[in-house]
């Protein structure tokens, strides 16, 4: 469980988190909100990169103020936006091996983890490639593999599909689904409401450093005024309503519901 209790945080005296309460387990939670609302700042509290100026954050009961980022990254993996800027090794293998080697694991264990992490994101066979030669979607999956190799229980993914074409996006979505199915809790920071409706179980909306919504994705898109916060309702949700089939997350669901009525 990741728990935030009344978290406040200020950069140079300017408060950007104003008393956030939040908790999540092994679920997929979408963290949304306009630019500058505090999403990244909040997420950075969950692996200890930032510490609250007031309130506290607990990760599986560990108070982040009492533990280092290195300790917390074994529990919470953070995949940053545009992760390709963080690659520095010459091969995909070494890129993924970097974290486990730093943990002091034997080379045999390192190899096992690298294989497993690359397989989890569908990049088997890419070991000897240079990270820079990968496509956008492959780079994103490599970044996930690097974090996964630390075997974290929770993953924070910051805009994991931005800039990807439809096919690459689909591959990343599949990786996220399968990580969730294998028991990871996933915090998805995104501006993409289509991604939210496809993947998330719960939505948390930040605005001006405050939490204004925290609930099921269905309630967010049907009972909450998302447009007021500059967010768009996904087309599939609009379509479902117009066709009178209620809340749906995909075209397949619409077809299934219509088919069921015929
Ligand atoms: N290192 C920093 N120093 C000073 N101010 C910062 C720093 N990082 C973020 N801020 C400010 O804190 C506020 C919240 O920023 P944050 O990056 O958490 O928002 P966000 O919701 O993730 O935005 P976006 O959707 O644009 O990524 C913004 O006003 C931002 O300018």
Keywords:
Rossmann fold; about 25% strand; cell membrane; 2 domains; translocase; binds adenosine-5'-triphosphate; globular
Q: In what order do the strands lie side by side in the largest sheet?
A: 6-7-8-3-9-10
Using the coordinates above, name the CATH class of the largest domain. Alpha Beta
Number of separate structural domains: 2
Q: Percentage of helical residues?
A: 25-40%
The biggest sheet amounts to: 6 strands, mixed
Q: For the CA atoms, what is the radius of gyration?
A: 19 Å
Q: Based on the structure given, which CATH architecture of the largest domain is correct? A: 3-Layer(aba) Sandwich
The end-to-end distance, rounded to whole angstroms, is 44 Å
Which structural class is indicated by helix and strand composition? alpha/beta
Order of H and E elements: EEEHEEHEHHHEHEHEEHHH
What is the number of helical segments per DSSP (H or I, 4+ residues)? 10
Describe the global form: globular
Q: Give the CATH topology of the largest domain.
A: Rossmann fold
Overall pLDDT level? 93
Overview of the molecule:
This is ABC-type cobalt transport system, ATPase component. It is found in: Cell membrane. With 262 residues, the protein is an alpha/beta fold. The protein has two domains: 2-229, 3-Layer(aba) Sandwich (Rossmann fold); 232-262. 38% of the residues lie in helices and 23% in strands. The chain is built from ten helices and ten strands. The longest helix has 16 residues, at 166-181. The chain is globular and about 55 Å long. The model has no long low-confidence stretch (mean pLDDT 93). Bound molecules: adenosine-5'-triphosphate. Adenosine-5'-triphosphate binds next to α1. Adenosine-5'-triphosphate is lined by residues 11, 16, 33, 35-41.
């Amino acid at each position: 469980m990741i728990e935030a209790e009344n978290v406040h945080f200020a950069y140079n005296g300017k408060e950007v988190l104003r008393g956030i309460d939040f908790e999540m387990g092994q679920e997929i939670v979408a963290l949304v909100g306009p630019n500058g609302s505090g999403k990244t700042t909040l997420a950075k509290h969950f692996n200890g990169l930032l510490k609250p100026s007031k309130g506290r954050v607990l990760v599986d009961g560990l108070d982040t103020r009492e533990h280092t980022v290195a300790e917390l990254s074994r529990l919470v993996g953070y995949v940053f936006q545009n992760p390709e800027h963080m690659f520095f090794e010459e091969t995909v293998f070494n890129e993924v091996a970097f974290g486990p080697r730093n943990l002091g694991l034997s080379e045999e264990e390192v190899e096992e983890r690298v294989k497993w992490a690359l397989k989890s994101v569908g990049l088997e066979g890419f070991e000897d490639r240079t990270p820079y030669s990968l496509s956008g979607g492959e780079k994103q999956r490599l970044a996930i593999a690097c974090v996964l190799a630390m075997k974290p229980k929770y993953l924070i993914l910051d805009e994991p599909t931005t800039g990807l074409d439809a096919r690459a996006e689909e591959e990343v979505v599949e990786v996220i689904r399968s990580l969730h199915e294998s028991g990871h809790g996933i915090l998805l920071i995104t501006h993409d409401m289509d991604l939210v409706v496809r993947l998330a179980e719960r939505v948390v909306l930040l605005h001006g450093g405050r939490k204004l919504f925290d609930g099921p994705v269905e309630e967010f898109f049907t009972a909450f005024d998302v447009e007021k916060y500059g967010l768009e309702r996904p087309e599939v949700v609009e379509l479902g309503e117009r066709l009178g089939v209620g809340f749906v997350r995909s075209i397949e669901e619409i077809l299934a519901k219509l088919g069921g009525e015929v």
